[in-house]
Amino acid sequence: MTEDRGALCIVLHSHMPYVEGFGTWPFGEEWLWEAVATVYLPLLELCREAPVTIGLTPVLCDQFEAMCGDAGRRFAEFMRGTRAQIHAEDSEGLERTGHPELAEEIRRAATDYVHAEAQFERHGGDLVGAFAALCEQGPGELWTGPATHALLPLLATTAGLHMQLASG
């Protein structure tokens, strides 16, 4: 095995359409909150020592920044209220219908959400800052992308291409 760095590059690219502030179901903030709880917060823990490149699009970062304010409060309320209630109802229903092993898994999964909310609070709701700190302190790197996650070869004008790249 070679000691040369750069023989392999792992890039974790992430994007989410803009949903912050558009209600919850079916394609509103709940989608963002689920991704924060089940993908982005666990990714922060997982990648502490990993030499990976994490791509966060401007659209995603803008939503992360909103979570330092009212969106973060709504996330925490959703985790403590709605999400916890749904897990409780689901596990009780599974117990009643003779599926204790599935009920146990729902209860276990519920602890993931409790952990995610606690981790969110530890970061002060600042996910952009948490990813920046992760890459400043560890072996990882941050990347971004076009301003609106446009498919660059399909843009109609050169000016549009330049705007996407300059803004992203």
Strand order of the largest sheet: 1-2-3
**What is the count of β-strands?**
3
Number of helical regions: 6
Please outline the major beta sheet.
Answer: 3 strands, parallel
User: In CATH terms, what is the fold-level topology?
Assistant: 7-stranded beta/alpha barrel
Account of the 3D structure:
- The chain is mainly alpha-helical and 168 residues long.
- The chain has a single domain, classed as 7-stranded beta/alpha barrel.
- The protein is built from six helices and three strands; from the N terminus they run βαβααααβα.
- It has a three-stranded parallel sheet.
- β1, α1 and β2 (53-56) form a beta-alpha-beta unit.
- α1 crosses α4 and α3 packs antiparallel against α4 (100-122).
- It is globular.
- The mean pLDDT is 89.
